[in-house]
Amino acid sequence: MAKILINFAHPALEKSRVHAQLVPAVKSIPGITFNDLYENYPDLDINVQREQKLLANHDIILLQHPFYWYSAPAIVKQWIDLVLEHGWAYGHTGKALKGKTFGNIISVGGSEHSYSKEGHHGHDIHDFLLPFRQTAKLCNMQYAAPFVVFGVHKKEFEDIREYSRQLTEVLGRMQSADFDASALPGLAYLNQLLQLPAQTQQ
Amino acid sequence: MAKILINFAHPALEKSRVHAQLVPAVKSIPGITFNDLYENYPDLDINVQREQKLLANHDIILLQHPFYWYSAPAIVKQWIDLVLEHGWAYGHTGKALKGKTFGNIISVGGSEHSYSKEGHHGHDIHDFLLPFRQTAKLCNMQYAAPFVVFGVHKKEFEDIREYSRQLTEVLGRMQSADFDASALPGLAYLNQLLQLPAQTQQ
């Protein structure tokens, strides 16, 4: 069974609508390690050894966060800058993360259309996530398609509950022993994992 | 004369080769405000009011930093997350930055070729800078082409001195009263500003 680590980052969870629902759903899945970065490091003072040990002990690493200024909240960058050390995570001798899967679980204010060439943000969400995709690649990890909740400001409680259900199911499938990770790069969004015939037959 | 603000971020300037030369060069230019983020906020505890006041008082805002993990060091993201508040920097009533110029001055480990489709990083440096470009746009600012020092690990002291000289000249031109900011979007790199006929005639 694949071991999943969720590195969660939300500087104001008490004000959140989406993550307030996603977090309990994710936490309720047996066998998933939920690592709340702001709770553990309110001063952004990351314990590098602890974080590297966590990474080494898991197969799938997902960053769960709101999409702040076309990226993750600052603590995620702090975590990347400090934890993914040269010689450990990348470089000739840095193979600690080789073969693992890396991805984002994000909530986004704008609609999916707003993240398109014609839309308000002028570019696809995948274009903005390029630094994460390439970070995964440099560390010899496979980047999974992102799990995205678009248009969070207009979402009803019931809609968010549906996303929580989806995410729970997606993570459950990724955990399962016969999950085929090679299907991931073919997806635009991780949400679509549930539509894959090979996966739904399980 | 345009007022330039440099927000500088390097978590380990004592180990830097490029910025160790660029910083004194930049600081020596009369009329430029040099704002060292890590020096002012070693705990990443940004004074939002101070930073907003600085922004309001300048016409050109440049982020100077090494390119860490395809982006800026964490403190720059912290600064963006906290300082560019809704209703102040963006949104219907957020017009404090309207018409200003925004950009990056970066040092990059890889060569310019490594930042291409065929190269090691598989994408152009401009693709990785997209979150900064779009952040500028959302705040009604014009994004300037980035000033880039590629291949820093292999650069000789003399090469870096040449970049310092270039940067000093570029900033001097941007300050000058008759500088035409509409030339900026046509450049791939801010370094090329010196080659523009209209600018070199000054």
Keywords:
six-stranded parallel β-sheet; Kef-type potassium/proton antiporter accessory protein, CPA2 family (TC 2.A.37.1) (chains A, B); homodimer; oxidoreductase (chains A, B); alpha/beta; 34% helix; Flavodoxin_fold (chains A, B); 202 residues; FMN binding (chains A, B); Rossmann fold
Question: What's the short version?
Answer:
Chain A is 34% helix and 14% strand.
Structural summary, described in words:
The structure is a homodimer of 202-residue chains. Chain A contains eight helices and six strands; from the N terminus they run βαβααβαβααββαα. Chain A is of the alpha/beta class and 202 residues long. Chain A has one domain: 3-Layer(aba) Sandwich (Rossmann fold). In chain A, helix 1 packs parallel to helix 7 (157-175). The two termini of chain A are 14 Å apart. The A-B interface holds A 11, 43-44, 68-75, 77-78, 80-81, 84, 121-123, 127-128, 130-131, 134-135, 137-138 and B 11, 43-44, 68-75, 77-78, 80-81, 84, 121-123, 127-128, 130-131, 134-135, 137-138.
CATH architecture descriptor text of chain A: 3-Layer(aba) Sandwich
Classification by helices and strands of chain A: alpha/beta
Helices and strands of chain A, in N-to-C order? EHEHHEHEHHEEHH
**Approximate helicity band of chain A:** 25-40%
What spatial form of chain A do the alpha-carbon principal axes imply?
globular
Largest interface: A-B, 27 and 27 residues
In the predicted model, the low-confidence regions of chain A spanning at least 5 consecutive residues are none
GO molecular function (chains A, B): electron transfer activity; FMN binding; NAD(P)H dehydrogenase (quinone) activity
Keywords (chains A, B): Oxidoreductase
Pfam families (chains A, B): Flavodoxin_2
Organism (chains A, B): Chitinophaga terrae
